[in-house]
Amino acid sequence: MGIILIATPSSGHAMTAAARDIFSLPKYWAACLGPAPYLPMSRAEMDQLGWDSCDIIIVTGDAYVDHPSFGMAVMGRLLEAQGFRVGIIAQPDWRNCEAFTALGRPNLFFGVTAGNMDSLINRYTADLRLRSDDAYTPGGGAGKRPERAVIVYSQRCREAYRDTPLVIGGIEASLRRIAQYDYWSDQVRRSVLVDANADILLYGNAERAITELAHQLANGRTIAELDSIRGTAVLGKAPPGGWTEVDSTRIDWPGNIDKIANPYDYDHGTDAASCAASKTQQAKSGDNLQALRIVPMPLQSRQALDPATSYVRLPSYEKVRNDSALYAHASRVLHQESNPYNARALVQKHGARDIWVNPPPIPLTTREMDGVFDLPYQRRPHPAYGDEKIPAYDMISTSVNIMRGCFGGCTFCSITEHEGRIIQSRSQESVLREIAAIRDQVPGFTGTISDLGGPTANMYHLGCKDKTIEANCRRLSCVFPTICKNLETSHRQTTELYRRARAVPGIKRVAIASGLRYDLAVRDPEYVKELVTHHVGGYLKIAPEHTEPGPLGKMMKPGMDSYREFKDMFELYSQQAGKKQYLIPYFIAAHPGCEDEDMINLALWLKRNHYRLDQVQTFYPSPMSLATAMYHSERDPLHKLGYKSKRVYIPRKPEQRRLQKALLRYHDSANWPQIRQALVAMGRQELIGEGDNCLVPAGSSGPKGNKQRPASRRHPATAGKRPRRSLRSAARR
Asked: Which of 248-257, 305-314, 349-358, 410-419 has the lowest mean pLDDT?
């Protein structure tokens, strides 16, 4: 059942890891009942299936859509395939516990998730304004889920059946597995495991963890015994005897020490004799009192530490709550311990108890990914919703997720913190089977596949060329500051998949709507030509995010040279195809490190290139991201940290955020007074006037070049309307 660890011959301590196939485990007895048409949401449905009880009940903040883009469907169908009876309680009334008793007491556990989106991001805009809609709710109306849904749902489950094991997961729990800065309350909050009073937290795309957990519980083990499953966090685990603790509880250690490891240049030295500062103490692990080695963080890179028997102690919740520099340091360490092949467990004290975060799960193999996506999904909402529209389903009903994960490492994005940096790809045959299923199962299918993608459009089957190097690597990004020489950049498999997808009978068109990593795409001109010739419907969205080196460096995004190279290729191949097609770039305002001058330069670039953006994005400090650590601490966790480290400029005040957002829409007359006032205050009056080099007019109405034309008459290249981002990406950003 457990993880198999195999030492690599070329490394003294790095380990490669393999895991047992999640579909190879003996099935639970209820497998004889076969798959349900839909996972039941009521006692009546359970009666029709001949069930007297559910083994597992999933409580979710989303409407139940039986589709592989919805987390509750993936987890439910996977557990069903393991032989368990799984029920769904979707968007329950959380004001009392009655709705949480609808399916009775689960035999094994409650699984609680806020849904595909963080409940607070779902509820509030980046400017902390209430949203009026919820794409994951029938009819699209807001208010069907509580704020901090994981905590609230967990409380109600406890009220309903106090002694039933409680498991939390999904993106909201995943990004709150340790103490995290909370933008909505402007404070550092405890791990959600503590606040939810749950027994165990599953982070990431938790197929491995939930499969092992369910089988172990079914075999009679208690949840308190299951404290070492990868991809989980538990409360109160004592360090095993004989382990080594890497002490990361403070920064700026005194004396002559090595610098904190740079994420792009990690020291894998093995000179244990050089660590004169290490000491030992007794580990209090029940009756097993063995010596526990403690190694200070600045010296640990020179130790021969086995990740299987060492863990990193982060500064406590109380310390990071009161010391933003330590918070940034803890964030830095967490991100350096994210490679599943060399990551160590993390421990963080909350009061008198420890949160123990086990290493990340081993990525699914292609065979396992195929198995997950080949489960018997109905590919539509549960019949209980009748004809009510669920906007999120309408957006993804004809799209196909071909991969998971992202090695881009953009600091403002939470994809890598949740799904990991190692790409997990499906086989082409599995993708083609899903396309055929969409053709045959989705009502009203018109022949258009709306997307073949995922977190990014073009990381399918890309990864490290050398598994030994991959097992040792601690880089935060494979493509920043430059593309790693060990990264496979050939898009051959993606190009071939596109061609095969277009050839499926009944398929008229295959669009690519996921965000494109253009600095990778230019490495494979054949892919760009294939994309531009056959898969762009007039517009292609890409994300430079900014034009200026300062903000781009804090974002870990490439410079504009890559954008210009891709733009030239895009225009060349569009011309060769005889098509008029346009790039739609989108940008972020108010990102850490972005000064008003940077936004002015970006606005001038937009004007020179005739872009008039209709939709713009303001930086949203989501939990656990590196950019959020910058926002809270005013320090850069991408580099060595100390109390005297140079501060990062943060456009924090609401008026600063509004100004930077307004500069992205310099052409909108509603923004002119605010921009004029700011330009005068900055001594940039030369940008006020009617010249081509001016941003806003001097008077109440602009010159001819600044007047907005009606949207219907705008040239597509200047419309600048950002296509709505896929909900798979929006849920994580």
From this structure: 248-257
Domain annotation for the chain: domains and CATH numbers:
27-231 (3.40.50.2300), 244-348 (no CATH), 397-668+708-730 (3.80.30.20)
pTM for this predicted structure: 0.89
Q: How many CA atoms lie within 13 A of 258 on its CB side?
A: 18
Q: Is the dihedral of CA 182, 184, 187, 192 positive or negative?
A: negative
Instruction: State the DSSP H helix or E strand holding residue 59, giving kind and residue range, or none if neither.
Output: strand 56-60
Peptide bond into 296 cis (omega under 30): no
| Kind and range of the H or E run holding 244 | strand 244-247
- Cα separation values, 10 from 6, 422, 431, 467, 719, Å: 12, 21, 36, 11, 55
Q: What 3 state SS string does 663-718 have?
A: HHCCCCHHHHHHHHHHHHHCCCHHHECCCCCCCECCCCCCCHHHCCCCHHHCCHHH
Closest C-alpha among 288, 274, 324 to residue 648 = 324
Q: CA–CA separation, 666 vs 688, rounded Å?
A: 11
Determine the 3-state secondary structure of 653 from DSSP. Answer: coil
Cα separation, 120 vs 126, whole angstroms: 10
Q: Taking phi first (over 0 means left), then psi (-120 to 50 degrees means alpha), and beta for anything else, what does residue 103 get?
A: alpha
Task: Provide the 10 A C-beta neighbour count for residue 712.
Answer: 6
For 310, list phi and psi in degrees, rounded to 5. Answer: -140, 155
H or E segment at 333?
helix 324-336
Q: From CA 232, how far away is CA 202, in angstroms rounded?
A: 4
Which amino acid does the sequence have at 551? P
Residue 561 tokens, joined: 């040279």
CA 461, CA 500: separation in Å to the nearest integer? 16
For the ranges 156-165, 190-199, 533-542, which has the lowest average pLDDT?
533-542
Of the pLDDT bands very low, low, confident and very high (cuts 50, 70, 90), residue 376 is: very high
Residues 636, 647 contacting (CB under 8 angstroms): no
Secondary structure of 265-280 as H, E, C letters? ECCCCCCHHHCCCCEE
